[in-house]
Write a structure and sequence with these properties.
The complex is a heterodimer.
Chain A: H1 2-12, H2 16-24, H3 36-41, H4 48-51, H5 53-63, H6 65-73, H7 81-92, H8 100-104, H9 111-125, H10 130-142, H11 150-164, E1 177-180, H12 183-187, H13 190-202, E2 207-208, H14 219-223, H15 226-243, E3 247-250, H16 254-262, H17 264-267, E4 274-277, H18 278-288, E5 304-307, H19 310-314, H20 320-329, E6 334-335, H21 360-377, E7 381-384, H22 387-399, E8 405-408, H23 409-415
Helix pairs in contact in A: 1-5, 1-9, 5-6, 7-9, 11-13, 13-23, 18-20
Chain B: H1 3-11, H2 13-35, H3 49-63, H4 78-97, H5 99-109, H6 118-141, H7 143-148, H8 151-171, H9 178-195, H10 203-220
Helix pairs in contact in B: 1-2, 1-9, 2-9, 3-10, 4-5, 4-6, 6-8, 8-9
The chains are: A alpha/beta, B mainly alpha.
């Protein structure tokens, strides 16, 4: 039975960290107020507390007296295969693991992490949606969910170097910094690659790409499988170790940053090197004067706003750097959405949701919250530091026929660097 | 058995037994969770975990329950948010700062403290009862709560509500003789004490875990919890 295996995964490393939080939940339902999927659709099953209901049941039934008595009395049922199929939809279609729910939980439960635990159970039970699983398998076999094989990587990078006339050092021994792009940037936003290369070159960074650590994307992390997550992280670390770099820089990719910066150390042996995000690095460069930006370069009568990515801002801590940059580039025309910063509403496409075709209708419905937010400030351009958000914005701008421009932060920075 | 004897029993031996079950039950649950083990967090921090924890508790205890717009999410449902906050404030005021309850604490702990004047405590008790009714109605109609609510949740509400109402009636000498009302109050309290370790009302203990974890997780990332 699938469910038995899944239940064991739910609770295998259910240490006190998870248990104490499950015990703290009062089932007050306030987390629903924070969830963009629930707010947009009104479907009660999308409430974050309901998404982790299987974990609660599995934990109580395995570890607590009360849970066992409840099953014996028929008040609670053991987790069944049908339950898993049902919850698979709540967990993968209607959750971006953005963790806004933990901000409003009166008990402060880190609901996002608990939902990730349930996804681990789903992965073990093999009830991950087909589209997502296909991408995971592709990454296992080819090294990339978007088909960035050795040849594709090499030719794309050569093309970017030629087209934008930027130096893209490859497998450079003795480099300090390894830069790892996401496959979304490599295949869909190549201007980002040129932009980031320009920033690094202008700053005089001794950096390199790696043909081994080609891309940072980690579909195993979406899936919830520890095995796959580690497998994909290992590829990056192997590349980094081989080149002997001191620092790994993750480019405009959210979940990959979450995986490598905030989860890798607790899952595996991580080589002793700094791991940071390109937004953090840009902040450092601007602070130290290694790059200089044209003040007011974007004050051209158009309004700019910044979209906070759940994994880079709320979960990554790079909240101030983008604002610092925007205030230099557009002191007059930069406006904040509300709510913003750590309380921002997620784009609705992260956590693997955008990869699942059957979730499209819900994903568009959820984006209506962002439409309202952006229109409220009357922004012409929405700036962001995550390519997954950018993919969602680009797709939704087309779907809703909006007249906004969508821009990556690195792109704006690169365009405004002074020589 | 007359009412005087019933009162003596409910506030004497039965109360003591209930208290022992309460303390032992809570300890059992605490130890059981602690025994599950705690993995060491090896992730290098960007910000201070300690600062995060302090902020998390300050927000949780002082600001969060009473000012919904601090977290802009609650603009959609402020009544229920306030009802939850006021209910807990009322509980704290009546149980800790009410003279009658302070005397119970004094008999148990051996020392007492300053208490609020009765009219204030009395008003706060009324606020708590009204808040409880609001929470009850909310549970009936809110679609998410309808999904989450089973027999256990209704029993929780009932077992908390009874001591509150009987206590209020006791102070105001409503409907029944003093001994009768006092006995009913004590009986419901005894029952609640036994029920707490079996239910989610025990959240007050795990609150200190989850709030601390929340503070650590956000502090580690240099984000305001």
């Amino acid at each position: 039975m699938k469910s038995v295996e899944a239940m064991n995964t739910f609770v295998q490393d259910t240490g006190g960290w998870v248990a104490s939080q499950l015990e703290a939940c009062t089932r007050c339902g306030m987390c629903a107020e924070a969830c963009h999927f629930y707010q947009a659709s009104g479907v009660p099953e999308y409430a974050p507390v309901w998404k982790m209901e299987l974990l609660r049941r599995a934990y109580e039934q395995k570890f607590t007296l009360i849970g066992k008595v409840k099953v014996a009395l028929g008040v609670d049922k053991a987790v069944s295969d049908q339950d898993l199929e049902e919850w698979s939809k709540y967990l993968y279609y209607a959750c971006t693991v953005c963790n806004k729910c933990s901000m409003v939980c009166p008990m402060g439960i880190d609901i996002g992490s608990l939902i990730a635990e349930v996804r681990a159970g789903m992965a073990a039970a093999g009830v991950v949606p087909d589209d997502l699983m296909a991408a995971v398998n592709k990454q296992v076999e080819e090294g990339s969910p978007l088909g960035v094989t050795d040849d594709v990587f090499e030719s794309r990078m050569e093309w970017v170097a030629d087209e934008w006339e930027e130096d893209l050092p490859m497998d450079k021994k003795g480099a300090d910094t390894l830069v790892v792009f996401s496959s979304i940037e490599i295949m869909k936003f190549p201007t980002n690659i040129a932009a980031i290369a320009k920033i690094l070159n202008k700053a005089g960074e001794n950096w390199t790409l790696s043909s081994k650590a080609r891309e940072i994307v980690n579909f195993g992390f979406y899936e919830g499988s520890h095995e796959h997550t580690k497998m994909f992280l290992e590829r990056v670390f192997d590349g980094a170790k081989e080149l002997g770099v001191k620092k790994i820089v993750v480019t405009e990719c959210g979940h990959a940053y979450d995986a490598i910066r905030w989860h890798a150390h607790n899952m595996m042996d991580v080589p002793d090197m700094e791991i940071t995000h390109i937004v953090g690095l840009i902040g450092e460069y601007v602070d130290s004067g290694r790059i200089k930006l044209k003040a007011g370069a974007l004050d051209n009568g158009k309004t700019y706003t910044f979209h906070d990515a759940c994994k880079i801002q709320r979960k990554g801590g790079h909240i101030n750097e983008p604002r610092q940059v925007m205030k230099i580039l557009a002191p007059k025309s930069f406006k904040e959405m509300s709510p913003n910063r750590e309380e921002a509403i997620c784009c609705g496409g992260g956590g693997g949701v955008i990869a699942i075709k059957d979730a499209d209708a819900l994903r568009y419905q959820t984006f209506e919250l962002k439409v309202a937010q952006v229109n409220q400030v009357g922004a012409d351009t929405v700036v962001m530091s995550c390519s997954n958000c950018r993919l969602q914005y680009t797709d939704c701008v087309e779907h809703f026929n909006l007249d906004w421009k969508v821009a990556g932060l690195s792109q704006l920075v690169a365009d405004s660097i002074m020589d | 058995m007359n009412w005087t004897e019933i009162l003596a029993f409910t506030r004497g031996p039965l109360f003591q037994v209930a208290l022992v079950i309460f303390v032992a039950g809570m300890l059992y649950r605490l130890v059981r969770v602690l025994m599950l083990g705690w993995q060491k967090d090896k992730v290098p921090a960007k910000g201070s975990k300690a600062v995060g924890v302090v902020k998390s508790f300050l927000k949780g205890l002082l600001i969060f329950p009473f000012i919904p717009w601090v977290k802009r999410t609650f603009t959609k449902n402020p009544v229920i948010y306030l009802a939850g906050g006021l209910f807990h404030l009322s509980l704290f005021v009546v149980l800790i700062l009410g003279a009658a309850h302070m005397l119970v604490w004094k008999s148990l702990l051996g020392f007492g403290w300053w208490t609020l004047p009765l009219p204030i405590v009395d008003w706060m008790a009324a606020v708590g009862i009204v808040a409880m009714v609001a929470l009850f109605i909310n549970r009936l109609f809110n679609p998410v709560l309808k999904l989450l609510t089973g027999p256990a949740e209704w029993l929780n509400l009932a077992f908390v509500f009874l001591p509150m109402v009987s206590g209020y009636m006791l102070t105001h000498h409503l409907f029944f003789r003093y001994e009768v009302m006092f006995s009913i109050h004590m009986l419901t309290v005894d029952f609640l004490l036994i029920w707490i370790p079996l239910s989610r009302i025990s959240h007050f203990m795990f609150y200190f875990f989850s709030r601390a974890i929340h503070g650590q997780e956000f502090g580690k990332r240099a984000v305001n919890p």
